[in-house]
Every structure is written in C-alpha cells, then in structure tokens.
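Cast an eye over this sequence plus tokens and walk me through the fold:

***
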Amino acid sequence: MSLTTDRSVQTKPNREVVVEFSAAALRAPFALRCAALFIDYILIVAVPVLGLVIDRLIGGGTGKFSNNTAWFIAFLLGVSDLLIFPALSGQTLGMMMCRLRIVRADGGDPSVARIIIRNTLGFLLTLLTLGFGFLLAAFTTNGRALHDYVAGTIVIFGSKRILK
C-alpha cells in the first residue's frame, strides 16, 4: 500500500494575516494615546495660530484674509487627520508618530464605515460625556475607549507585517 500526496503548489498573493491576536497584549498605553491626541491637536491648531502671527507681523493686523484662510486650512487638515487618514491607513498623523493603529476588535483592518462611525458618532458621544468616554481607555483591561466600543475597534501599539 503506497501513500501518495498531492504536491501541487498553489501560489497566492501576499496577504495580511492576524495570528494569535491578543488585544490586551497589544493595547496602546493610555499615555501614548494621549500623546497621539495631543500631537493631532497641536498640528491642527498650529495653522490658525501661525496665520494670526503672520498676519500680525506682515499684514498690519487686519486679519480678514489670512485668518480666514488659516482657519479654512485648519478645517481641511482636521478633516483629513480625523477622517481621511484613518479611513485609508487606520492612523491619524499623531498615531503614525506614536506607532499606534486602529484595528477591529478581532485584529483585522477596520472598514471605512467603521472609522467614520468611530470618529464622528463615537467622538461626539465621548464629547457629550465630557471626556469620560476617552478616560474609559485608562481603566478597561483591553484599553478601549467609548468610541472604540461604539465602532468595534481597538487602538494597538504595533505595525503591520506582510506574510509571504
């Protein structure tokens, strides 16, 4: 009796695989999440502040054109940082600098709809709780804030790797 096996090899394109994902082990430290939030805040607020400073130094203090332009640029930067970048990469600019990433609770990449729910409805609920929704991340074992629970996401400290 001979044992034969099928040795045909199927080539598959590279794909990302989540192996033994543990949210508790990879959860982002609360202080690092605060640092990423602070970086995002500074980046967005710096634009109108710089516009005001430039207007005072060069424009003589009228401020209508450069101040409105600076606020418009800050608005565009805010929308990009809080919605577009996370929808495309799972990270805001501050999260990129701190090596944090938004993933689904099971470790997979979140959908665009999930990111939009997290960063609009979830942030609004966190704001309505006067920030206690964000502080929830400091006291839960898996480090999830209110907006993470709403969207079924978690913020982890780590990066992606392509398995071949």
Q: What stands out?
A: Helices lie at 23-26, 30-59, 64-89, 93-98, 112-128, 132-139, 146-151.
